[in-house]
Design brief:
Length: 209
């Protein structure tokens, strides 16, 4: 799962959960074509892409010890050595839907950027982000009023990213275009190479900010 910034800055997006007794792994629901493929541990992935991208790390559950184990892996692999903003190369952004987890990340890893995933960006979401000293908000690209939501976040000094682009069909392409035209800082997408071509084509046509 790869996150492509609308400015064509590539980030690696990792969904993290804990499986017992196995070590912390980077997880994703793969199709049948990936059956029998080895999934790397989070530590293996962190070492493999260190310094080559920005890491967008999503906490996928509220399992006990997930945050502390994840932060320990980030520290061990040198990802928390310096402060970074979302989408800056070499840094890490942790996002999820749980404010308690984001608070714990802030306590254990103050150099990591943090973003809250919300159903929609409104005044209440902004107040929560500011109260918890977060750097940004994330919402679905399918919202018809996405541009308005992005504007609300940016007016408050927050970064804004999207998810929910979907498959590379007409709906997915429309969602990607909406995210770009709304001025979102980035979006999570499962077809980064096709998305890059679409973004470049839109840029050539003058349809991007």
């Amino acid at each position: 799962n790869v996150c492509v910034n609308v400015c064509v800055c590539v980030c690696v997006c990792v969904c993290v959960c804990r499986t017992s007794p196995s070590p912390l792994i980077s997880s994703y629901k793969f199709s049948q074509v990936f059956v029998a493929r080895q999934v790397p541990t989070l530590e293996q992935l962190l070492r493999g892409v260190a310094g080559r991208c920005h890491l967008l790390l999503e906490l996928k559950s509220k399992q006990f010890g997930l945050v502390s184990s994840t932060v320990a892996a980030l520290n061990q692999c040198g990802w928390l050595d310096a402060q970074s903003m979302p989408y800056e190369k070499g840094g890490v952004t942790v996002f999820c839907q749980d404010l308690d987890q984001l608070d714990e990340v802030g306590q254990l890893a103050p150099h990591a950027a943090r973003m809250l995933a919300v159903s929609q960006i409104d005044a209440q979401a902004v107040r929560l982000a500011q109260a918890h000293k977060l750097q940004g908000l994330s919402t679905s690209a399918a919202h018809e009023n996405l541009a308005e939501q992005v504007a609300i976040a940016k007016a408050a000094g927050l970064r804004c990213r999207t998810a929910g682009i979907g498959a590379p069909d007409d709906t997915g392409l429309a969602n990607l275009q909406r995210a770009i035209e709304a001025g979102a800082d980035g979006t999570t997408i499962d077809w980064p190479f096709k998305a890059k071509d679409v973004i470049q084509m839109m840029t050539t046509r003058g349809n991007t900010h």
